[in-house]
């Protein structure tokens, strides 16, 4: 019996969190495991599955052992309409807690599935700290996926341990982070609210850190040439085992079909030809790409400043704009003008970002510093104008601007909750200055671009045979197989 067991593939279950920015990299990691001859099951709800089912179906047709197991979300039990089960930028405040409640109601069903599907290992999002105990009960390893950068998590650890921000007289005075590899400064206003003053989220983050200590290891979507210094620092500072497997998007999305559909429930062909035709008509490195990710939103006053800065800049641009129920008449007028002058291209809603960033016409981008976009920009070898808004984005900005020096800060000064407009409005003059520096032909800009291109090459090397992430992946799978054999022979 033991011999039959040994011939079977390693069975790994993935449990992503129900938010687009967490689902996308975690599913890419699941697909990466399937590429390495692991039997993969992704457990999620029907609405979340739509975001990635096309990608996993293609992997399946390539002969990889990967499938989705959907669990009905208890919408009616928590007072939600059918199909509302993921967090996104438009989720109303009163629905956020209901989705959270629905997830906690599913916990028992998830735990039963870990057992029924005979998992050898579970990989879960950091927002499911209870899975550390669930895995321990089954005697199998739990790996935790931590979104964001090693630098961000190292900075948070430094703040929790040393509290340098607590002595500041003012929210706008800068303080330095103790015990980090680089001298980095921030203000209290740029810190997440849960780090400034304890709240419910602080308690959740403490639970996440405790669950990390109980886990076999944590996984990051990053690579050694980008963050090796902070990876080593994080391991030492927290005493946890950790593996970087990135850039996962670059690794698993190598076909145009994968790139076009990443993170999108595609029901019909978008007007791809329009944006592609427009970009292909532009000179190399001449277009600025502007996008603030799947979870960001701005008040009209801020959209006006962005629109004016783009129109007044001397560079062509492509801007991804959220569709809004209340309508923004001035944006429609703006779109007509820039279309007529051929200076700009506006994409409403979702954009095939991987395909856009690899187009030779793109010269740089304005980003909210969400980790998925930073990794995609690094893969494409592009410099960034950084405009952090929420979550760990102000920490990620430090990596881009101060450590790797592949970006210029727009000058955002205030952290805000992801579902809030915040009070700050960044002026068109500041946006314009950052764009000018990013896209100009001056020495400073050229140096920034050179470093970005070098990191893009390093990203490609990391996932090739003998590269740092490639070696990490092989070692990790081998370790998990050994643990499985020990468990079988121990029984």
TrEMBL record:
<dbReference type="InterPro" id="IPR002213">
    <property type="entry name" value="UDP_glucos_trans"/>
</dbReference>
<comment type="similarity">
    <text>Belongs to the UDP-glycosyltransferase family.</text>
</comment>
<dbReference type="Pfam" id="PF00201">
    <property type="entry name" value="UDPGT"/>
</dbReference>
<dbReference type="InterPro" id="IPR035595">
    <property type="entry name" value="UDP_glycos_trans_CS"/>
</dbReference>
<protein>
    <recommendedName>
        <fullName>Glycosyltransferase</fullName>
        <ecNumber>2.4.1.-</ecNumber>
    </recommendedName>
</protein>
<keyword id="KW-0808">Transferase</keyword>
<dbReference type="GO" id="GO:0035251">
    <property type="term" value="F:UDP-glucosyltransferase activity"/>
</dbReference>
<keyword id="KW-0328">Glycosyltransferase</keyword>
